[in-house]
User: Fold this.
Amino acid sequence: MSAFVGFPAGKTRFTPLPDLFFTELLGQIRDLDELKVLLYLFYYLTRQQGYPRYMTMAELEAEGLLLSALKHEDDEPREVLVQRLHNAVAACVARRSLLQLEISDDEGSTTYLFANTEQGRQAVDEVHSGALILERRGAVHEPHIERP
Assistant:
């Protein structure tokens, strides 16, 4: 592992995080993969413009930076990383830090991920009511979340 050289001087971009992330969520999260996925989603979504802001599971699976961050060993197979990614997303959805919608039609299905923010909840509600159409049209499915 190479040492981090530090943040550069001058103007740099920042990724805002809600204060509740630190005061409520951070103390609850025990799994490092869940934490990395949640932070990456905030990073990704804050760089989007417009409405709604979301990421599909396929887009998330293609993020090499995130998959590299999930590695425990240099030679860890991609399939293992993708499975760990899915497990981390499921943990975020179960904790309700992320909202998930699956939309399916005759051609297949797409899983959409939203931050559980006012804007994310509004977008999910609008998809359910039919006021907002994402790229894929079809039946909207909620993820099954087992509650303890």
